[in-house]
Amino acid sequence: MKLLLNSPLDMHLHLREGDMLKHVAPFTAQQFSGAVIMPNLISPVDSLIKVEQYRNDIKKCCGHENFEPFMTLFFRPYTREELEQVRDKIIGIKLYPAGITTQSENGVSDFSAIEPTLQIMEDLQIPLLVHGESNGFVMDREKEFLDVYQTIATQYPRLHVIMEHITTEAAVRFLEKHENVSATVTVHHLLLTLDDVVGGMMQPHLFCKPIAKRPTDREALREAVFSGNKKILFGSDSAPHPRHKKECVGCAAGVFSAPVALPLLAQIFEEQNCLELLQGFVSDYAINRYGLTVPKKEVALTDTAWEVPAKYGDVVPYYAEQTLRWSLI
Ligand code: NCD
Ligand code: ZN
Ligand code: ZN
Fold this sequence. Notes:
Layout: E1 2-6, E2 9-13, H1 18-31, E3 34-37, H2 48-60, E4 68-74, H3 80-86, E5 92-95, H4 115-124, E6 128-130, H5 141-155, E7 161-163, H6 169-177, E8 181-185, H7 194-199, H8 215-225, E9 232-234, H9 243-246, H10 261-271, H11 278-290, E10 298-302, E11 306-307, E12 323-324, E13 327-328
Parallel strand pairs: 2-3, 3-4, 4-5, 5-6, 6-7, 7-8, 8-9
Antiparallel strand pairs: 1-10, 10-13, 11-12
């Protein structure tokens, strides 16, 4: 059997820089027509010059692939002039609470100080992408952060707010209440609960932020995605770290899912008898919600099984050494 996807998009992706960028970018450029590139580099992408430089670096790593990196800016207080200059070069601005995830030290610590920038973003119609976690108890962080989402979504009703990588039933319910709010969901959060990460032998390659939650949370995500919720977009949150940063004391957060993203999605949508909804989840809904123009690219998969390698270079992929039913042609 063959499965064709039109212009698949990964709406949340970490490509890193330097050798890691060169190594991981081709996996996404081959499978997707575009991806939203996260700005949490060692020196955050927080200026027009850095956006342009990073985009050029990415393009160089994608060979001849028809692939559009949709750039994001790292949230800090910006002036109207700065945002007017950069608006055509970015898909949105990514807000990280300070210190809550990988390379977010320069994120927001005072949420009362973000208002002027949000007002300019609403005026200029620049979407706000958010890593929505408080600094409370780890299992409650996403739920607690819903208050912040609530304030922003009601105070700026024309601002498109994207709740990145949601993991809870509470987030799915919240999404229903606000027309201007969308969400991304990863493939690993459709499959994992906390038990898979720490319930048996600890699995560093499944450790990510937000941490996988309860079975009821995973069920709520699955129900929403497999029923074709048009406000929920696929964002892999593929977040590569070299093995020595994962298999150590002080394991870095992030699951490297880029090499398996589409085959794994095809597998789980097929298992749910809703393969026809995959096109919406990996492309159409994002194009609608963001009002995007994307490169035309047809990506084909076939139901030929393959075993995911134990590692790609120095990075261990999600589903390592396991068999997937679908492969890219
Ligand atoms: C991401 C990373 O490594 O950059 N890690 C993760 O666990 N998801 C950061 C992020 O998306 O929060
Ligand atoms: Zn995040
Ligand atoms: Zn991320």
